[in-house]
Amino acid sequence: MPTKNGSGAPVAGRRKFLKTAGLTGAAAVATIAMPQISRAQTQTWKYQSTWPSKDIFHEFAVDYANVVNSLSGGRLKLDVLAAGAVVPAFQMADAVHSGVLDAGHGVSGYWYGKHKAYSLFGTPPSFGWDAASFLGWFYNGGGEALYKELVNGILKLNLTGYLYFPMPTQPLGWFKKEVKTADEFKGLKYRTIGLSAEMFKEMGTAVTIMAGGDIVPGLDRGLLDAAEFNNPSSDLLLGFPDVSKFYMLGSHHQQMEAFEVIFNKAKVDALPKELQDMLRFASHASSSEQICKAYDRYSKDLLEIKKRGVNVVKTPQSVLDAQIVAWQKVIVEQGKEPFFNKVIESQKAWNKRVFAYTSTNNLDSSALAAGHKSLIG
């Protein structure tokens, strides 16, 4: 007869029960888990960037995909393609809308031909804000609802999109000679994109809009006199130092910008909610990751640009002032369109409140650089 423990229950009987219960529990877990495994088959989505494969922005597109692929636990995979792999860069949004592509990586300013207000979600006017404040407006100041109103309501596009990566202020760009006055922009053949094209036209510039991979060949063949792209790393990798020797830093044409990652809306809507949320959260995670990488790489590559014999020049205040005057004219003219004006008024209201805080609290780093160089080396 089995012995008893202090509770009076037979020891062997209890061991038998626990062993049987353990097997039953394991079997139950297996029964529950198997359907989950069958539902977790990987979906692979075609995801094209608007950037040449050698550009750091394409690297950022890959970084976003890596976050999604990791967070999804193998349930969703973004298969990254460079610009032109399926469609040209400026056709990417249409390809995602139609389902030729499942997802894409670019900037909203590329689609301002569809509606001028589209560029307000990528390259808005210079209101004294930075890109972090711009993203704050998008996610906390009503911008995302306006974006959906434009994309899904007004334009009827089958797209779901998220903005991310608060980009540093863009350089004025690359020139054959140093620009010292705003008058020198009159008749200048200059490349830019989005709403900043309207700003430069107000300054008398002959604006050309082209994709990133075409700019350096355009400068080399004389189709352009000057051009901007985005940052020292992209500019170095695309070969700008080989065709221009004046690099002017600081500009109001795109004081801030953010990436836009877009998905075919029907495909996103068909995903389980946790994967839909994951696409959104991946954009927030990528903002932190990529701004850290940007400051590291941009600063190193600016030093390399100087080593290539390029004259790095700060944009004169007179040119910056002329840009602000031009922006004011653009806002008045484009604001005649009701939705454009609706977005502008939302951005102004956000900036009036937030700038009152940042302009009072944040310190002028240029003053530190000029007056306390011992602190920064």
Structural notes for this entry:
The protein is of the alpha/beta class. The protein folds into two domains: 41-169 and 257-295, D-Maltodextrin-Binding Protein, domain 2 (3-Layer(aba) Sandwich); 173-254 and 308-359, Periplasmic binding protein-like II (D-Maltodextrin-Binding Protein, domain 2, 3-Layer(aba) Sandwich), CATH 3.40.190. It contains 14 helices and eleven strands. The strands form two sheets. It has a six-stranded mixed sheet with strand order 7-6-8-5-9-11, covered by helices on one side. Strands 2-1-3-10-4 form a five-stranded mixed sheet, with helices on both faces. Helix 2 (56-71) runs antiparallel to helix 10, helix 4 (131-140) crosses helix 5 and helix 6 packs across helix 11. Mean pLDDT is 88; it is low at 1-39.
Q: Describe the strand arrangement of the main beta sheet, using strand numbers.
A: 7-6-8-5-9-11
User: Architecture of the largest domain, according to CATH?
Assistant: 3-Layer(aba) Sandwich
Number of E strands: 11
Strand content: 5-15%
